[in-house]
Amino acid sequence: MQNSAMKAWWDSSHMAGGNAAYVEELYEAYLDNPQNIPENWRQIFDDLPKVDGVAVESNHSIIRDDFKKMAALGPLARAGNGNIASGDTPSDERQVKVLQLINAYRFRGHQHANLDPLGLWKQERVRDLELSHHNLSEADFDTMFSLGSYAVEAEKLKLGDLFKSLNRTYCGSIGAEYMHITDTEQKRWLQHRIESVEAKPVLAREDKIKILKGLIAADGMEKYLGSKFTGAKRFSLEGGDSLIPMLKSLISEAGAAGAKEVVLGMAHRGRLNVLVNVLGKNPSVLFDEFSGKHDASLGAGDVKYHAGYSSDFATSGGDVHLALAFNPSHLEIVNPVVIGSVRARLERRGCKDGSLVLPITVHGDSAIAGQGVVQETFNMSQTRGFSVGGTVRIVVNNQVGFTTSKTEDTRSTQYCTDIAKMVQAPIFHVNADDPEAVIFVTKLALDYRNKFKRDVVIDLVCYRRHGHNEADEPNATQPLMYQKIKKHPVPRQIYADQLIAEGTIEQHDIDKLVTEYRAALDHGACVVEEWRPMTEHSVDWSPFVGHDWDVDYNATLTKDTIVNLGHAITNVPEKYRLQSRVNKLYNDRKSMIAGERLLDWGMAENLAYASMLAEGTNIRITGQDSGRGTFFHRHAVLHNQDDASTLIPLQHISEEQGKFEIYDSVLSEEAVMAFEYGYATAEPTTLTIWEAQFGDFANGAQVVFDQFLSSGEAKWGRLCGLVVLLPHGYEGQGPEHSSARLERFLQMCADHNWQVCVPSTPAQVYSMLRRQMVRPMRRPLIVMSPKSLLRHPLAVSSIDELASGVFHNVIEEIDEIDAQQVKRVVMCSGKVYYDLLEERRKREQKDIAIIRIEQLYPFPQQEINEIFAQYSHVKDWVWCQEEPQNQGAWYCSQHHFWESIPKGAKLTYAGRAASASPAVGYAAIHSQQQKALVEDALTIK
């Protein structure tokens, strides 16, 4: 063959550059056994670069380029053993096409899989899956071909048998998507697990009966509720019944693999069914809830399909503790909460690989594609601070979101699960009417998660037998779908008929199982055979129950103890070269401990952490700039300028100290804060802190504040000690870098649900943080933390002030002012205090007192009354704030101010005018406004 002929052959050949799949197939065959491929190719792969004797994967384009060069030298020789032919005869070309056909099914077989129980999906033609696309036909069916890495026992098969096998494996009730994964080991593992059994499990009779029982329970529960409480909302599982045997199998397999806990998060679809048929909630309790009965001691409560639950579940590996997380109607927000709870449980057990606690999240098809917190949570899955060894994610794919069923209206991709490809998670689409296929992918997904410690997705393609809830009329918006659903048999009936046909069970036995389950519901007892009474699985919350804000605590430390802690956290090895500004800061801190300077904010905060760590408390801090601190103040993580290594002094206080973790988080507010909420609800003995980069950015996590942090105790009885640091203060930095929206947090204050504090001195932040852990009570702490005060010359404290261990909810006048000469009292919080103080001192005014309220909620009425008593003669009282009038504390706390001042006194406002924007964007206007509000507060009219 001449070179010109070779070029023509190359341009038209099956070997041309577009056939990357063939090159990949050759490479995978080479990895299996180098003798399985032609010598020419073996030489190319042998010549790939190696590191420590191990071949480094190269781009297939590089391999093809090498092949081009080789092709220009002459015709390719046939391989020695002929397992994969590469010559120029027709049979050799067909062999290559067969390998390409196998890869086509791996890549695109899912697009022709039988996934829709209703048969409504209109699948596009995929030419890659057709024989003719590969220059093959039924005329080749009796020809034997080598299989490359196709994971069946035979090395060769007739094309007809192979074609049937490929369709059974990749186009049956399971559609497997995994070829987007770049890791070869993971792909080959999945190929072997799927192809070796043609994606069909071998189940014993008892396993099939167990599946049938799960379907009977799922169907029986819904029918029972539907007849007993007609028209009541229950967000039934009907159509997705396979979720029940799926979850039970998943938990059983997890326990057999060594898991000790499973944390489950799901929205309301099917939740009641899961509560009764998986977690073992007593049906009679659920029926009482439907009848309107409730426990008055549980507070505000919540609807039935938001409730959480805990129980134990017997497995062959021992009892597994189950926890179903409470969840509001913000469907996907529970996912990072679950992951955070799992992280806390893993760390408590000392488990680093995720093997002891399994997270399971159940999604809706429209929600997983439509809600951004899903993307945020996927993005966190492999990061240092948030990984849990992988999550099993199940999509209950109803093929309709509320009333939206057209794909082009619900997402921009073929599948609702395509978002999972961002982390290269394998995705198993499965027809929910084939429960055996469901069980197969369930075990496969769990085994993948346990082996590779990564997320995995099961897309349970089903339908919703009723409307969004049982009071909806779905025919109004999906007439064709619901005409089909009305005629479609339930999953229990489909599977029962299958088992009868294959001789596994008789109809009378099935009838008996149905009757027994109905009788168990009538009796009101637990219907889960695996249910066990709970033993001690989680941390003990009893020390923190039943306490209120006035509970006694002692947070004092000796001065010597604080000094020793200060030496420990400023001890940096000489060889550790710090950046110049950081080096100066640490030298200043050494001077503070030596008594040569007063303590600034960063030093006091780090001393608070050090003191708690020394007492054995664990601390976890996350946020987008937490290690350094957005405003360059914390520097808990030091970076060596010579080799970029890091040092965390707070981790080197003593051998017996608590664990200190601090992470610069992914760029997320909603998912990260929800994660920390979940962590804090599972671990009361760890000081858990989330810090916003700017306090204003917390509005990206508003759902977490609204639905969990502010109301979780009232709705669900869930205690949580999460600390939220929100930098706040008006320094002329514009609308998005000034206000942490203090007013929003004050609006949500009720029932002593959380604390809202605005500390103004280093000693205050030190004592506030210590109080959060030393006091035997766990409720959230919202902190308007400072920016300019971090380095303000007046915002300093002595070591003696720290040693007292007392957080002052109110700070009285600090200058030498005769209370009897005071004509006006100005109340304020935060940074504006220092503006008022400096201006008053400049004016040498002695008739105005300035009182700081450091805790705005719960409002410290008793302390205020004690301080205000000396000003009972004063009739002129002012509340001064930096925020616009409709923001800040004025509107929300005014009733407290009125109650505090003397009767007959007047209360006026000094601050910015009401505004739609949190702050102005021009520094000059900001300065004018700031000067005016200070002037207004200090001018007695």
From TrEMBL:
EC number: 1.2.4.2
UniProt keyword Heme present: no
Domain of life assignment: Bacteria
Gene Ontology terms, MF aspect: oxoglutarate dehydrogenase (succinyl-transferring) activity
Pfam families, A to Z: 2-oxogl_dehyd_N, E1_dh, OxoGdeHyase_C, Transket_pyr
Gene3D superfamilies membership: 3.40.50.12470, 3.40.50.970, Multifunctional 2-oxoglutarate metabolism enzyme, C-terminal domain, TPP helical domain
Keywords assigned: Oxidoreductase, Thiamine pyrophosphate
UniProt protein name: oxoglutarate dehydrogenase (succinyl-transferring)
Source organism: Agaribacter flavus
Organism lineage string: Bacteria, Pseudomonadati, Pseudomonadota, Gammaproteobacteria, Alteromonadales
